[in-house]
């Protein structure tokens, strides 16, 4: 059932075809008022009803509209894809709502069941890689091997790190090189003759 077209006095006398979805969204939210935030899908339906746009045109315009909604400073996402106007909320209120949302998330102990996604392109293709498949390394319950962890405060970890470094150096240059190795310190210096040769 389609509702009667919404009338927005802000756009009286203007061609609806010349209006952007973002302008109409702002006007709809302003008309509804502060305590009447809207879900994204409901907002899009209201815009479509007002503009009289076809389903295919709306689907084509959705990516740009969603991007503009996120980047336009006058809109704010209130979670669960619910949108309102930023002007409705003071800075303190926004912070409080975010904190309250985080606290309510911490209270939830039971994880939500994951929905099984179906990929139409993978049906029957046994060689295809399912990138949506759960990877055990991605799980929250994954715990790192304590032997591989490093603690800056633990002197034993520092000692182990130095010993490992020394072992690597000894693999490259063993201690039994003897006194036969001559280091010519002049080779390390960069002379003016070298600079002239490089410039040529």
From TrEMBL:
Residues 125-143, 150-200 have a biased composition (Acidic residues). GO terms for biological process: DNA-templated transcription; regulation of DNA-templated transcription. GO terms for molecular function: DNA-directed RNA polymerase activity. Coiled coil: none annotated. Keywords: DNA-directed RNA polymerase, Nucleotidyltransferase, Transcription, Transferase. Residues 19-88 form the HTH HARE-type domain. Pfam families: HARE-HTH. InterPro entries: Asxl_HARE-HTH, RNAP_delta_N_dom_sf, RpoE. The keyword Metal-binding does not apply. It comes from the Bacteria. One of its GO terms (cellular component) is DNA-directed RNA polymerase complex. The keyword Kinase does not apply. Residues 125-200 are annotated as: Disordered. Belongs to the RpoE family. HAMAP family: RNApol_bact_RpoE (MF_00357). NCBIfam families: RNAP_delt_lowGC (TIGR04567). Participates in both the initiation and recycling phases of transcription. In the presence of the delta subunit, RNAP displays an increased specificity of transcription, a decreased affinity for nucleic acids, and an increased efficiency of RNA synthesis because of enhanced recycling. RNAP is composed of a core of 2 alpha, a beta and a beta' subunits. The core is associated with a delta subunit and one of several sigma factors. This is Probable DNA-directed RNA polymerase subunit delta. The lineage of its organism: Bacteria, Bacillati, Bacillota, Bacilli, Lactobacillales.
